[in-house]
Write a structure and sequence with these properties.
- The complex is a heterodimer of chains A (761) and B (289).
- Chain A has 761 residues and is an alpha/beta fold.
- Chain A has 28 helices and 24 strands.
- An eight-stranded mixed sheet of chain A has the order 6-7-8-3-9-10-12-11, with helices on both faces. Chain A has an eight-stranded mixed sheet with strand order 18-19-20-15-21-22-24-23, sandwiched between helices. A four-stranded antiparallel sheet of chain A has the order 2-1-4-5, with helices on one face.
- In chain A, helix 4 crosses helix 5.
- The longest helix of chain A is centred in the N-terminal third of the chain and has 18 residues, at 187-204.
- The two termini of chain A are 44 Å apart.
- In chain B, 45% of the residues are buried.
- Chain B has a single domain (2-282), classed as Orthogonal Bundle (MetI-like fold), CATH 1.10.3720.
- Chain B is mainly α and 289 residues long.
- The longest helix of chain B has 37 residues, at 78-114.
- Chain B has helices spanning 2-15, 19-41, 78-114, 116-130, 134-145, 149-176, 179-186, 191-227, 239-248, 255-285.
- The two termini of chain B are 16 Å apart.
- The chains are: A alpha/beta (761), B mainly alpha (289).
- At the A-B interface, strand 18, helix 18 and helix 19 of A face helix 1, helix 7 and helix 8 of B.
Chain lengths: 761, 289
Amino acid sequence: MTAVLEARELSVQYKIGRDWLTVLNNISLTLHADEIHGLVGESGSGKTTLGLSLMRYLDANARIAGGQILLDGDDLAPRTPAQMRPIWGSKLAYVPQNPLAALNPSYTVGEQIAEIPRQHMGMNRPDAARRAVEMLRRVKIADPEVVATRYPHQLSGGMRQRVAIAMALVTEPRLLVLDEPTTALDVTTQAVILDLFRELIHDNQAAALYVSHDLATIAQLCERVTVLYAGEVVESALVRDLYKRPLHPYTIGLLASRPSAHTAFVGNETRLPVIPGVAPSLSERSSACTFAPRCPLAIEVCRTHKPPLESADDGRTVRCHRWKEVAAGTVNPLTPQPSLPQGGEGEDVNAEKFPTLADDSQKPLVSEKPPSPLATEIGVGSSQKSPSPLVGEGQGERAVLHATALSKNFREGGLFARLTRRARAVHAVDAVSLHVNRKSTLGLVGESGSGKTTLARLIVGLESADSGDIALMGVDIPQPLDSRPASALAQLRLVIQNPNEALNPYQTVGYGIGRAVQKAMPNLAAYEIRDRVLWLLDSVRLPATLIDRLPSELSGGEKQRVSIARAFAAQPALILLDEPTSSLDVSVQAVILNLLKDLRAERGASYLLISHDLDVVAYLAEWMIVMYLGQMVEEGTSAHVTGFPSHPYTEALVSAVPSADPAARRGSIRLEGEVPSARDLPTGCRFHTRCPRYLGDICKTHEPPLRDAGDGHKIRCHIPIEELLHLQTSPLNPLSIGRGDLSHPKLDSPSLRERGLGGEV
Amino acid sequence: MRAISKLMIRFLRILLQRPLTFIGMILTVLFVLMALLGPNVAPYPFDDFVRDTAGKVIKRVPPSAEFLFGTDKLGRDIYSRVLWGARDIIGLAGLATALSVTFGTMIGLALGYRGGWVDEVVSRLFDSLLSIPAMVLALAALATLGASPGAIVAVIVLLYTPIVARVIRSAALGLRSAGYVEIARLRGESTAYILFREILPGVLPALAVEAALRFSYAIFLTASLGFLGLGVQPPSPDWGRMVYEARLDYARAPWGLWFPAGSIALLVISVNLTADGLRRVFRYEGSVI
């Protein structure tokens, strides 16, 4: 394995104010040809800085404080930007996170790609233009000649990212640095792009560094992975070794705090293990072990001496004083899960502190097998009675929210277009009905263009539906926000995705929450309001001292918790959570998800959870709706939808979600093409243009019916239910690996049994 | 309250870091003090003729220890006149600025938040108003209304309110779709509450910069109108007027021109430096101030 780039004891510092603070400390890393090396870290770990440092692409307020960066043997560290310029773009290439920001909006993509061979390879214009088209073809863009004449804003996210990749690869570089390139993309698009990466890097025999916070993507894509914490390498190994047997307590905690690592199906009272504390800021990093303040295994030596990066067997390195004990299995940072007795639906759980890694650092814990990453432990199945209290059809009295046939079309174009009826309609939401029962959670899953955000805005009242009704607590409410009575407003609250935008930067935390309390309970005295604010802060496990802080002084996770506290201020019956954890780190996400479960149990509130992340939704919601292009395509319990994704779209969605267990590569069902525009809906079934199970003309001409598979499980497809379900249980279906005892009531039908099919798998 | 004081302290600290801003602010403060206390400090009333021991009026005396700025062609102490005149120009310009900022903010907030056809109509109205050159409009208005201090303030307010409104409107437009504003709407907050408690603080940076800029323009406009004879009438020590009168006499008593003109220039420059400093502070600090 040829080493393309080797970093030796690399240290990088930033100038903050007047001091130089160390961002990266003694990083050693080797990148080989034809190998994708993953770099995992949370925000503040320095992973982006490392990626850029390896390319010697740093701002003026950063400097390399030590070490070497050897590219094919040449040290890049002492080079000036002028000396680096011939190397940038030709030997080193970079694919950024947000392609829209990286592409020049004033030039066509063809021109932008062509600029590179002209600059670095001395090609003339016509040759360079041809090469640009060739590159577009290599990244699997259809009609590359046409696309080359388009501008970046005319392309979809997936296509833009492919253009960025084409630009990076046009000079056949030795090293490719990819900085979270799929974070901004839908899961189905991401799956295709990841496949593309692997293929192109292999073709080019290049080395690649894939920087991400998403462990699952790295597990699917990379061969080797390095974990970064507080600017240091804490562990580095082959991917399969790391995921099967992590050695560093941080890695163990990180892997365990993902919702996909714990099945949702074991009743609904599991809590995610959480790494306590927060990552240290640049100035707070300890000169001993940087993870010691949060480490459940920390002992005296951890606080006084920095652990060296030691080699374990088979090429692994780990930086921990106690790694040998972890490897031997004599200590384990995770506590056992307190699973509560089943059947206690909605009871006030004795909500003590959610489990964290042990506080007592001296006593090693009893070794406990970490939960299997696959949904094999099934609570749902023939052993549990069907979840009727949660699902119930037409149980209006129990429904907190009941939306009927909501539709919304947006009209494009200004005044003139509207007058002359030339305005095109954007069909955002099409006759979607849903209901949320008391003390239950409904999950809404969809990718961009599915209409889920619009649907949320319709329910909450920020948009008015063109048709359809909304009933809250059994009472019909008018749609426009201004016409709703105050009592209705108090029952429905919203938590939004971006915690920075959710709080007014000029208001203290205490004021923000206090105002929500005041609006909901106008007759309270000032001291009563303050008491309630303190109580709310306590319920989201935030210290009372935050009451006078401004949002700019809080971290993302803390801001989101304040947002949640504020949502609970009015004691609403239903809280709508719009991607509540999408912008947060994995470990912070675990805290928030635990919190949401606790609060749900304590307050008896219902949630409507919207997310593109299937694992998060499956973790919190009992019932799921999958949306595509404004319609609901599948509806059912989380177990069924994620375990038996019957609709072809759901199937593709589930298979596209990367799994952090490299051994269980989920099936590779890939969707061709792009999501059609909502302005120009496909005829018949909206999914037919990309459907892997396309039947025939009927899909193009007739809208598929909404079929009932029993127990409220509904699927919108022309394919008969039995066949869809049968397909799910067929051993040929890559998704049916590890489904365990999961069974579907419909599979028990006599007709299937006669044919020798169905029943339990 | 605590939030405001915390923000203010942080803001002032950053603001005063740049030397130019610091100088600009100090000078502006000095001028304002001059406006407030000038007449108390001035050795002579503004219309008094200075006489020597014999009782004869001393005209055109160059700057000296006794007469810091010298005397003008009529024998009046220029130093005193400058001190007295500060009140007129800063008072007029200040009042006009305060009024235009107040009206402009209220209109701008309403237009930016609500939008709709009212916004379209009013914005076009403002655009047409602003397409007329300021001086032409001022002259026409003052010719009709007569050149009183009230008329001058009215003209300046008429000219500058649309400008402030436009700036505030675009700031409010940006904030209208912020998450916290939508959540406030979902709580059932009234439009007034949202405009004043949620949006206005976010608009303050733009407002502060614009107010400082308007002030500097207003000063200059007032001085120009005074120069043209449309300001406060003589013998009142309107700086612009002083420049006009001294211009004719420049060959014999140039200092009569230097000091009023220099005062106008220095005041405008220091206000501009302050405005510039504010602009930089707000840009660097991002969302919070």
